[in-house]
Specification:
Blueprint: H1 4-10, E1 12-14, E2 20-24, H2 27-30, H3 43-48, H4 66-80, E3 84-88, H5 91-94, H6 108-123, E4 127-133, H7 139-143, H8 150-167, E5 173-178, H9 180-188, H10 200-224, E6 229-234, E7 239-241, H11 246-269, H12 274-279, H13 293-297, E8 303-307, E9 312-316, E10 343-344, H14 362-374, E11 379-384, H15 402-420, E12 425-431, E13 450-452, E14 459-461, H16 463-474, E15 476-478
Parallel strand pairs: 2-3, 2-12, 3-4, 4-5, 5-6, 6-8, 7-9, 8-11, 11-12
Antiparallel strand pairs: 1-15, 9-10, 13-14
Helix pairs in contact: 4-6, 8-10, 9-10, 10-11, 14-15, 15-16
The structure holds beta-D-fucopyranose.
Length: 487
């Protein structure tokens, strides 16, 4: 008789040799220790301590206390057999006195923390992948205009040079920015993320200055760490028009322009999309784009990081009913969708995560194959994918999270399908290693494959962590549903 374990190994999607199996986190979401080593506040410290901004009044003061427990977390990753770890650097730990005018002194303590983490990872056989900016802008830079100001991009280039010079001898891969879409539109248009501003023109200026920061960062990393690979991580939308109508196609074009092409085109082709500039002409004249900027922004990169969670269904809004706004990006009074008055995001039927995000793994295959087709020659990585579900509880030392296991299996199969179709996908990073501070949602939404008890900070791998460990070990994803593997 064939056992479940045998079935698991006999029917699998095998991944290419050397495929990276990783987990991802971000500094503010896990580190805590917000004043250690002279760290100064970031916009997320300010925002999370502003009443009404975060569910439950949560903040990142302690978070997972990863700053003090990183060795334990690295040991956990080693136990799970992960081969890469994507983490971000807290900019205000590195240059705590930065202002719009100057970078200020470099903090030896700040660099020492990340240097220790890198060494611990390398000793455990785990390749570090550093994200330089995962949303925690030093507050002093926001006070000087934040991403609406060109100076922020210039200071970012200098900060990137500092980090690359200090760690580039040991770090094989740097990612300049995480999801500039969120930084620009959620931070400056809808205001559900820090710094909480609601000005459409400011958001488009932020788009450009984030793109410029990316380009300046690429140049700085190339100079300081010539052996390292350089990438950027985008939360690309798999945009699905609800019907085949011309009006729904027009809605899809607008959303694709604002979420995908306004980053992809300057970074990979050295131009801004004409249609996006035309759509937004009533909001800004784009005069913040200066001669030479697009050459800087389009400096070649080695890989594109794609974050995918959920599809984006759009349709033309007829104005005959209240607008539906199920875009998954919070219900701020203001919208992140600039110049999209005629677009709505219809509520979806079918399975959803605790975030209310529809589950549809086809988007993973769709995005990766599109990127492979439109940007040949660029390695692709899934730098985030995962899900929050209700009900993660530790019972007798175990956390049964069957929904997360199913989500991961179906999305990993979708990555495999993209590879079969020719997409050069070189790695996958589950979001997230640990339950953590989920931005405006606070600690209520748990994305970790490892459970964190926020009163004791005890870590307990969930069933999904052991499932993922099996995937990493076998370099393969089981095809058919199987019994959850035990620790
Ligand atoms: C992404 C963010 C990450 C996390 C996941 C759920 O947009 O990059 O920090 O919040 O969503």
């Amino acid at each position: 008789m064939t056992s479940v374990a045998q079935q698991q190994t006999s029917a699998t999607h095998q991944f290419p040799q050397g495929f990276l199996w990783g987990a991802a986190t971000a500094a503010y979401q896990i580190e805590g220790a917000v004043t250690a080593g002279g760290r100064t506040p970031s916009i997320w410290d300010t925002f999370s301590h502003t009443p009404g901004r975060i569910a439950g009044g949560d903040h990142g003061d302690v978070a997972d206390d990863h700053y003090h427990r990183f060795r334990e977390d690295v040991a956990l990753m080693a136990e799970l057999g992960l081969t890469s770890y994507r983490f971000s650097i807290s900019w205000p730990r590195i240059t705590p006195q930065v202002t719009a005018q100057e970078l200020g002194p470099v903090s030896a303590d700040g660099l020492a923390f990340y240097s220790g983490l890198v060494d611990a990872l390398l000793a455990a056989g785990i390749a570090p992948s550093i994200t330089l900016y995962h949303w925690d802008l030093p507050q002093a830079l926001e006070d000087g205009g934040g991403w609406t100001s060109r100076a922020t991009a210039e200071r970012f280039g200098e900060y990137a040079a500092v980090v690359a010079a200090a760690l580039g001898d040991r770090v094989p891969q740097f990612i300049t920015l995480n999801e500039p879409w969120c930084s620009a539109y959620l931070g400056y248009a809808s205001g559900v993320h820090a710094p909480g501003r609601t000005e459409d023109a400011a958001a488009l200026a932020a788009v450009h200055h984030l793109n410029l920061a990316h380009g300046l960062g690429v140049a700085a990393i190339r100079r300081a760490a010539p052996a390292a690979k350089v990438a950027v991580t985008l939360n690309l939308a798999w945009v699905c028009p609800e019907t085949g109508s011309d009006l729904d196609a027009e809605a899809a074009r607008r959303v694709d322009g604002l979420q995908n092409r306004v980053f992809l085109d300057p970074m990979l082709s050295g131009r801004y999309p004409d249609d996006v500039q035309a759509d937004t002409a009533g909001v800004t004249d784009w005069a913040f784009v200066r001669p030479g900027d697009l050459e800087v922004i389009s400096a070649p990169i080695d890989a594109l990081g794609v974050n995918y969670y959920s599809p984006t269904v759009v349709r033309h809004w007829t104005r005959e009913h209240p607008k539906e706004t199920a875009d998954g990006h919070g219900d701020g009074a203001a919208t992140p969708w600039i110049a999209c008055d005629d677009v709505e995001f219809p509520r979806q039927h079918g399975p959803k995560t605790a975030m209310g995000w529809s589950i549809d793994a086809r988007g993973m295959t769709g995005l990766l194959t599109r990127m492979a087709r439109e940007h040949p020659g660029l390695d692709l990585m899934v730098t985030e994918n995962g899900a929050a579900f209700p009900g993660d509880e530790v019972v007798d030392g175990r956390v049964a999270d069957p929904d997360r296991v199913d989500y991961l299996r179906s999305h990993l199969a979708a990555v495999h399908a993209a590879i079969e179709a020719g997409a050069p996908v070189v790695g996958y990073y589950v979001w997230s290693l640990l339950d953590n501070f989920e931005w405006a949602w606070g600690y209520e939404k748990r994305f970790g494959v490892v459970h964190v008890d926020y009163s004791t900070l005890v870590r307990t791998p969930k069933d999904s962590a052991w499932f993922y460990a099996g995937v990493a070990r076998d370099n393969a994803v089981p095809v058919a549903p199987v019994a959850r593997s035990e620790p």
